[in-house]
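Worked Example 4.2. Consider the chain below.
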Amino acid sequence: MKTIKMLLAFTIFLGLVGFVPNGGQRLVSDTHPTIDDLIGTWELVSFKYGEEQSFSPRPDFIGYRKLITPTHFVYVSFEEGKEAIDYAGGGTFTLKDGIYTEHIEFYYPGDSKLLGSAMPFQCKIQDKRWHHSGYIIEREFDIDKGVYKVVKRQRIEEIWQRVD
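Applying the procedure from the previous section yields the following structure tokens:
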């Protein structure tokens, strides 16, 4: 029974963080990263949102994590030391020619205007940190027209470091 529990835990772990090909060696590039470069767990280090001119460090009391598998991503924000999630989201992603695109398929809390969005980011790995920049796109459903419309675009630049 103990072996089955360990095997189940290991299977869940692989499903969450993916498996790292190339014997665990990451192919780190200052130009366009590969999917293998991104697989793993990342922690937000600093950010610039909107019209901010300089990067701000992540506040110590807030945790931001992003988990990348070969096909999916999940991100979560939480207060350090508490047992509650502020927000979380995830879905599938694509990576081509330095453009990392998140396809938001689920989000908590459920009233998010990010749900259903595809958000492309230019990205690179530099000095073992993942840099990405683009726009957060919020959408609303237009009942009269029966389609989603963009209600807000906000510039975003983030720097993430791998959590080993």
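The first strand starts at residue 40 and ends at 49. DSSP finds two helices and nine strands in the chain. Compare this with Example 4.1 before moving on.
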